[in-house]
Design a protein that fits this description.
By secondary structure, the chain is an alpha/beta fold. Helix content is 42%, strand content 16%. α4 packs across α5, α4 packs across α12 and α14 runs parallel beside α21.
Length: 619
């Protein structure tokens, strides 16, 4: 690399000879590929956005001018150009750079986000704050086309159009959604309408038509609609934005020229750029879905470097089970929020395409859509990541549970997820869902229990949550036939005289190992797989109390309002004077790192569980 090491700040970039911008973008891609192949990460979107990000830092005076990304997984080039090139090799590793934008990491990270469709709302807030503070800076939101499948972004669009403040929205269309209209005519017309004199002439023409006594506003509207025939920005124009594009977002000189032309345009502006997801790396260009988010891989072949997999992943077990259940019950339908591969619903889609629905990045709509399907007599399963389920809490409560509709929510990536960090850890679902009446919450302890939990969920005829972790299962034997659990009943594996651990979900295996460690220290420790967080198995809790007043709860969830809190409430309500130790995640956000590292850090590894219990019992 000859150019990139000299770019310490965006000001260095702005001082660069324009002829070096193209080779600079190639070096940025090289740096991204090197780091992601070693650490994993979001590759395709970041490779496609290199020219857009470089051009924005070249034209705008960052960090005074604010860049807001939607979401941060397309912003690796932004990190590299803002003083983090040397440290970029640590991205997504414990103690290293975050894989997303993070306000505490850099003054250039104007807003952090791991969920989609938030950039316009945040950018509009910054623009209004700028106006009220009488400042003179620019605000730019860079939103991928996927973000435009979420309803929140349209709420922000109508608000921005109504307020009319100066801001730019860059729609990064990576040809997997919206328009692919890029060609000579489109490029010529776009370059033409970005010229200031053309913009002024258009404004004068519209004002002139408004002043006509008879035609007035009708003529002005007609003129705008005539313009929309040539340009595909009708919806944005109607919402109060001035639309430009589409342009080739991977031609850095074209992007820079257009940005310079529209930089001082008054009011809200939307620039539509078309990019190639995975640009510059053939495997990612040919298989953009596979290279969206991935683990470590061989740079030469594009093949993953994961070790020998001795057990199926929880996602794979969900996928296989839902297909098996749907084959026997034609009323089962499946919903995803733009994550068919991530949730394992791609197999269901391929097998039952007419019973599969991708609602886009619109979790709120997805939950109420599922409620409607259930009200119509179907059996919907909505598969989504635990972290994203936070976005549809109101719909789960109001539209599903209140009406007691039989919707199954399959929450993948529940608990600590690893390198994606605090925006993606699914450690809040037990807490925010436990308060919802009519809702059953099941946390199977292994991959075999997961398949039975799904069978139970559909048979229950109730609103039902099945939450399970990311990654490979424990290698347990898988039952050939599916069975139904008794709802609200767990299993007491063995009972201890000194202390008993009540475990839920994937922490059951860690609890078993902790009991073995404690046995070596002369402490008799029992372990129960509670299986259900709601309703609780009160008989197991009472039985544990009879054996010993020392009770420990362990969960892969925040302690506030979680499983341990539920046990504490039960003990109090039943006048059981137990001595309770709750283990889980404290009142803090957990950073990124390998799951094993994080469990060790927060005290939920088997060794740390045993250590904490040993000291507590001796007190």
């Amino acid at each position: 690399m000859n150019i990139l090491p000299s770019i310490r700040t965006p000001q260095d970039l702005r001082n660069l000879n324009p002829e070096l911008l193209v080779p600079l973008c190639a070096e940025i891609r090289e740096a991204i590929l090197s780091a992601v192949s070693q650490n994993g990460g979001h590759l395709g979107s970041s490779l496609g956005a290199v020219e857009i990000i470089t051009a924005l830092h070249y034209v705008y005076n960052t960090p005074q001018d604010k860049l807001v990304f939607d979401t941060g997984h397309q912003a690796y080039a932004h990190k590299i150009l803002t003083g983090r090139f040397e440290k970029f090799k640590t991205v997504r590793t414990k103690g290293g750079l975050s894989g997303f934008l993070k306000r505490t990491e850099s003054e250039y990270d104007a807003f952090g986000a791991g969920h989609a469709s938030t950039s316009l709302s945040a950018a509009l807030g910054m623009a209004i704050a700028r106006d009220l503070n009488k400042e003179n800076s620019k605000v730019v939101a860079i939103a991928s086309d996927g973000a435009f499948t979420g309803g929140m972004i349209y709420e922000a669009l109508q608000n921005a159009g109504n307020l009319g403040t100066d801001m730019l929205v860059v729609l990064n269309d990576n040809q997997m959604f919206i328009s692919q209209r890029v060609g000579a005519l489109g490029k010529f017309l776009t370059r033409l309408i970005t010229k200031k004199y053309v913009q002024m002439a258009e404004d004068k023409a519209v004002n002139f038509l408004k002043n006509l006594s008879k035609l007035g506003n009708d003529a002005a509207k007609l003129a705008k609609r005539a313009r929309a025939i040539l340009f595909p920005g009708t919806i944005f124009e109607e919402m109060g934005f001035r639309y430009f594009g589409p342009i080739n977002g991977n031609d850095i000189n074209e992007v820079i020229n257009v940005l310079k032309d529209i930089k001082d345009t008054k009011g809200p502006v939307l620039l539509h750029v078309v990019t190639k997801k995975g640009k510059g790396y053939t495997p990612a260009e040919e298989h953009p879905t596979d290279f969206h988010g991935l683990g470590i891989f061989d740079l030469e072949t594009g093949k993953g470097k994961t070790g020998v997999q001795t057990a199926p992943t929880f996602t794979q077990v969900f996928s296989d089970t839902i297909v098996k259940l749907a084959a026997k019950d034609e009323k089962i339908v499946a919903i995803t929020a733009a994550m068919p591969e991530g949730t394992g619903l791609d197999a269901f889609r391929n097998k039952f395409p007419h019973r599969y629905f991708d609602v886009g990045i619109a979790e709120e709509h997805g939950a109420t859509f599922a409620a409607g399907l259930a009200a119509g007599g179907l059996k919907p399963v909505f598969a989504l990541y635990s972290s994203f389920a936070q976005r549809c809490f109101d719909q789960i409560l109001h539209d599903v549970a209140l009406q007691n509709l039989p919707v199954v929510f399959a929450l993948d990536r529940a608990g600590v997820v690893g390198e994606d960090g605090p925006t993606h850890h699914g450690v809040f679902d037990l807490s925010f869902l436990r308060s919802v009446p009519n809702l059953i919450i099941c946390a199977p302890s292994d991959e075999n229990e997961l398949q039975h939990a799904l069978k139970t969920a559909f048979a229950s005829g109730k609103p039902f949550v099945v939450r399970y972790p990311r990654g490979t299962g424990f290698g347990v034997e898988m039952d050939k036939s599916l069975k139904e659990f008794e709802i609200g009943k767990g299993v007491f594996k063995h009972k201890g005289k000194d202390v008993n651990i009540l475990a839920v979900g994937n922490k059951y295996r860690a609890a078993l190992r902790a009991a073995e460690i404690l046995k070596e220290s002369g402490i008799s420790c029992g372990v129960a797989d509670m299986r259900f967080v709601k309703p609780l198995d009160g008989e197991i809790i009472k039985d544990a109390f009879k054996k010993s007043s020392n009770i420990v709860t362990i969960e892969d969830n925040v302690l506030a309002g979680g499983f341990g809190s539920a046990v504490a409430e039960f003990l109090e309500d039943n006048n059981l004077a137990a001595r309770l130790l709750r283990l889980g995640i404290k009142d803090e956000f957990i950073e990124h790192g390998k799951p094993a590292e994080l469990h060790e850090l927060i005290g939920t590894s088997a060794e740390k569980i045993a250590q904490n219990i040993k000291g507590w019992v001796k007190k």
